[in-house]
Specification:
The chain has five helices and twelve strands. It has a single domain, classed as Aminohydrolase, N-terminal nucleophile (Ntn) domain (Glutamine Phosphoribosylpyrophosphate, subunit 1, domain 1, 4-Layer Sandwich). The protein is α+β, with helices and mostly antiparallel strands. Strand 11 and strand 12 form a beta hairpin. Strands 10-1-2-11-12 form a five-stranded antiparallel sheet, with helices on one face. A five-stranded antiparallel sheet has the order 5-6-7-8-9.
C-alpha cells in the first residue's frame, strides 16, 4: 500500500485508483478546463528547459513574469526550485498554482523520507506530481521535473491534465518552439554536464530573443547525485552571454 497521502483528505494519493484526488470538484477531469489550462500556460509566457545527461540534469528558465505576455510584471523571478534532495521543479503558468504545487510536493517528499528512511525515487515523484496536477487545485501549470536517483538522470514534463512524459530533454512555456529549435540536432545523452548547461542557457536565450513572454536573464539549476545548485544571471552579467 502506498504511503503517499493527499494533503487535504489524508487518504492514499498514489497506488489506490479509488482514492480521492487533490482538489476534485467540477474542475477535475473536464476536457474544456484542461484545454483552457493549456491555453493559459502559453499566454502567460515563459521558457523552461530540462536536459538529462549521464552525469546529471540541467534545468534552465528565464526570469520574466508577464501578464498575458504583454506587460512585464517582474524581471527577476526564480522559476526553478528544489523539491527533493536531488530534484528540482520549474514554475510555469499560474504563479499561485505553481507555488502551491511546489510546496505540496516538498511536503510529500519530506514525509516519504521520514517514513521510509530514504529519498523518494524520481519515478515516484513524477507520478505523484502528475496525480496532483490532474486533480487540482493547481490550475494552469506545465512544469518540468528534473532529478537524479539510483536509476540515473531523469527529466519529465507534467502537463495541466496530469500527463507525465519522460524524455532526454524537454521544453515548456510560450517560448518552447524556439528553445526546441536550439536544442534539436545538438543534444547528445553523453555530452558533459557543462556542455548541457551551456546548451540549456542558449536555448532559453534564443527563446527570449523572439518570445515576448520570456526574458530578463536565466536561472540555471545543476542536479547531480550530490545535490542541487541554482544560480541566476541577468542580462547585464557576463556569464549570461
Amino acid at each position: 500500500m502506498s504511503r503517499f497521502t493527499d494533503p487535504l483528505t489524508g487518504a492514499d494519493a498514489v497506488g489506490d485508483p479509488t482514492a480521492p484526488e487533490l482538489g476534485g470538484g467540477e474542475f477535475s477531469g473536464a476536457g474544456d478546463s484542461q484545454a483552457n489550462d493549456s491555453d493559459t500556460v502559453n499566454k502567460t509566457g515563459t521558457t523552461t528547459v530540462g536536459i538529462a545527461t549521464e552525469d546529471g540534469v540541467v534545468v534552465a528558465t528565464d526570469m520574466r513574469a508577464s501578464l498575458g505576455g504583454r506587460f512585464v510584471s517582474n524581471k527577476s523571478v526564480q522559476k526553478v526550485e528544489q523539491v527533493h534532495p536531488t530534484g528540482v521543479l520549474t514554475l510555469v503558468g499560474s504563479v499561485g498554482g505553481a507555488q502551491s504545487f511546489i510546496r505540496t510536493l516538498r511536503s510529500e517528499v519530506d514525509l516519504y523520507e521520514v517514513r521510509k528512511g530514504q529519498p523518494m525515487s524520481m519515478h515516484a515523484l513524477a507520478t505523484l506530481a502528475g496525480n496532483f496536477a490532474r486533480g487540482g487545485p493547481f490550475f494552469a501549470i506545465n512544469p518540468i521535473l528534473g532529478g537524479v536517483d539510483e536509476a540515473g538522470s531523469h527529466v519529465y514534463s507534467i502537463d495541466p491534465a496530469g500527463g507525465v512524459m519522460q524524455d532526454d530533454y524537454t521544453v515548456t512555456g510560450s517560448g518552447m518552439q524556439l528553445a526546441h529549435g536550439a536544442i534539436e540536432g545538438v543534444y547528445d545523452r553523453e555530452m558533459s554536464l557543462d556542455d548541457a548547461r551551456d546548451l540549456a542557457v542558449r536555448a532559453v536565450v534564443a527563446a527570449s530573443e523572439r518570445d515576448t513572454g520570456s526574458g530578463n536573464g536565466v536561472y540555471v539549476s545543476t542536479v547531480t547525485d550530490e545535490g542541487v545548485e541554482i544560480e541566476g544571471f541577468d542580462e547585464t552579467d557576463d556569464a549570461f552571454a
